[in-house]
Design goal:
Length: 257
C-alpha cells in the first residue's frame, strides 16, 4: 500500500502536476490520520472491554464476600442480643433477691450471659487485594468505593472497649468459679463428665442466697451488659454497611448486563 502511494506521488511529480500532487498528499495525510484515529478507538474499545470484564469479576467477588458478611453480622447480632438478654435477666435476679424467682434459669443466665462472648470475623479479602494491587480504580462507582473504605476502616479500628470487655468476662469467671458448675443442668453436667448429681433444693437455696449477697458480681455484670450493648450497636452498624455495599454491588452488576 505504501509503495502504491509513493508510485502515485512520483508519477504526479514527473508529469508536472504539482497541484494534484499537493491535493493527493493532503488526502494521503488525512487517510493516515483517520487510520490512526480508528486504530486508537479500537485500542480504547479493547481496553474498555478489558476493564469492564475486570470490574465485573471484582463485583462478583465482592458480591460473594458481602453476602457472607451479611450472614456473619446477622448471626452475630442475634447472638449478641441473646447474651445481653441473659445478662439483663441475671441482673433482675440479683435485684429481686427472690430465691424462687427463675431459679431453674439462673444457670442459663450465667453461662449464656455472664460467661458468653462472641466475635465477628468478616471477610475483606477482595477489597484488601484491590488496595494492595492498586486496582481500586477498576470500580467506577465512587459511592461503592466510599462504603468499602468506611467498612474497612471500622474493621481495622476495632472495638475500643475490647480490653474492658475481656477483663469483665474474666472478672465474672473468677467470681463464679467456685459455684458455677452447681447451676449446670443434668444433661450438661453429664456431657462434660460431672458425675455428681445436682444438690438438693435446700443446698441450692443456700448457694443462690450466697450468690445474691456477693458484692463483686452485680457491678461487673452491669458493666458487661453496657459494653456488650455497645458491641451490639457496632455489629448492627456493620450489618447496615454490609447490606448497603451488597445492594450497590448488585445494582452495578445489574447495569452491566
Amino acid at each position: 500500500m505504501i509503495k502504491l502511494f509513493r508510485k502515485i506521488r512520483q508519477n504526479l511529480l514527473s508529469e508536472g502536476k504539482t497541484g494534484k500532487y499537493f491535493k493527493y498528499a493532503i488526502g494521503e495525510i488525512v487517510l493516515v490520520v483517520i487510520g490512526i484515529l480508528i486504530a486508537l478507538n479500537i485500542n480504547n474499545w479493547n481496553e474498555k472491554q478489558k476493564e469492564e470484564k475486570s470490574e465485573i469479576l471484582i463485583l462478583k467477588t465482592l458480591q460473594k464476600d458481602f453476602t457472607e458478611n451479611k450472614k456473619i453480622y446477622s448471626d452475630i447480632v442475634d447472638k449478641q442480643t441473646f447474651v445481653i438478654d441473659n445478662c439483663k435477666s441475671l441482673i433482675e435476679c440479683f435485684e429481686r433477691k427472690d430465691l424462687q424467682y427463675k431459679r431453674d434459669s439462673i444457670g442459663k443466665f450465667i453461662y449464656y450471659g455472664a460467661f458468653n462472648y462472641y466475635r465477628a470475623e468478616p471477610i475483606l479479602g477482595t477489597y484488601e487485594a484491590m488496595i494492595g494491587s492498586g486496582n481500586l480504580n477498576v470500580l467506577k462507582s465512587e459511592t461503592l468505593k466510599s462504603k468499602l473504605a468506611l467498612f474497612s476502616s471500622e474493621i481495622n479500628q476495632g472495638f475500643e472497649d475490647e480490653t474492658l470487655s475481656m477483663n469483665l468476662l474474666n472478672t465474672l469467671h473468677n467470681e463464679f468459679k467456685s459455684i458455677g458448675t452447681l447451676f449446670l443442668d443434668h444433661r450438661t453436667r453429664q456431657f462434660i463428665g460431672l458425675s455428681k448429681a445436682k444438690e438438693d433444693g435446700v443446698f441450692q437455696n443456700k448457694i443462690i442466697s450466697n450468690l445474691y449477697q456477693n458484692p463483686n458480681i452485680l457491678h461487673p455484670l452491669a458493666m458487661k451488659t453496657g459494653v456488650e450493648t455497645n458491641r451490639l450497636n457496632l455489629y448492627v452498624k456493620m450489618l447496615d454497611y454490609s447490606n448497603e455495599i451488597l445492594n450497590l454491588v448488585e445494582s452495578e452488576l445489574k447495569e452491566k448486563k
